[in-house]
Design a protein that fits this description.
12 strands; alpha/beta; 24% helix
Length: 257
């Protein structure tokens, strides 16, 4: 199964003047189309009856709880992956319209100036950025400052603030932390912050409404089973969802070492 999504061809809609009582000419709508195909992912948790009998805690419930947490992390990562992976390629694998904006931070940090440049590039293309997705080590460097005119004096205060009150907003954009900022969609990539599959960190600045589109057909379906031959019981946790970038130029990717 799949879902078709229409996106306006860049600049196709333009208001026109018309006189009072006059005829408003019919618009020739130009759209292009993309497809979201949901993918299945999940866990099969098998535990022996002997382990269940000898454990004073609810072993299965513990494992299912952990599995649910990892499913949530994987779901978030998969929603970002289209931008993370597709911005490097010329093929429009995940995007319907437009081209990604890119910023090379040129160092070991993502600075305030890099965030502003990414936001500005999106604005030039007509999009207001409302979310910045950052890896976990970035908050303390965002206001570090780079060159004249940067807000260096606030850096020390920010480090103190991070201990108890993490930054949640920067220049009107919500800050979302995600440790899975890799360019690989293999499960092993979730074990690492930047991943063994990428030596480059990324920050995403985007418009969440017109950027990433998510189709979720199933979420955390839990099914129990019993296997008397192997003397075990098990639980399967599964979900099914897909993602697509409607307007790539509503997304900016900042890369740094």
């Amino acid at each position: 199964a799949y879902l078709k999504i229409d996106a306006e061809v860049d600049g196709a809609y333009r208001p026109i003047w018309f006189a009072s009582g006059g005829e408003l000419a019919e618009e020739t709508i130009q759209v292009t189309q993309g497809t979201i195909t949901p993918r299945l992912f999940g866990f099969n948790i098998g535990i022996t009856n002997e382990m269940l009998e000898d454990n004073i805690f609810d072993t299965m419930a513990t494992h299912v709880s952990i599995a649910g947490k990892r499913m949530g992390e994987w779901s978030s990562f998969m929603s970002l992956f289209p931008v993370m992976d597709d911005h490097r390629a010329t093929a429009t694998t995940y995007r319907i319209e437009g081209a990604y904006n890119t910023v090379a931070a040129g160092g070991d940090y993502c600075y305030w100036s890099d965030i502003m440049e990414a936001e500005g590039q999106n604005a030039i293309d007509g999009w207001t950025s409302d979310v910045a997705v950052i890896p976990p080590h970035s908050p303390a460097t965002l206001l570090k400052g780079e060159g004249a005119g940067q807000p260096t004096p606030t850096y020390e205060g920010m480090k103190i603030d991070l201990k108890g009150n993490p930054i949640t907003n920067i220049n009107g954009m919500d800050i979302v932390r995600c440790r899975h900022m890799t360019t690989s969609d293999t499960p092993a990539a979730l074990q690492y912050w930047s991943g063994l599959y990428s030596t480059t960190w990324h920050v995403l600045v985007l418009n969440k409404t017109y950027g990433i589109q998510t189709l979720r057909k199933r979420w955390l379906k839990i099914e129990n089973y019993s296997d008397p031959v192997k003397d075990l019981v098990g639980t399967c946790v599964s979900s099914r969802q897909g993602h697509l970038v409607a307007y790539a130029d509503a997304c900016a990717v900042i890369s740094f070492a």
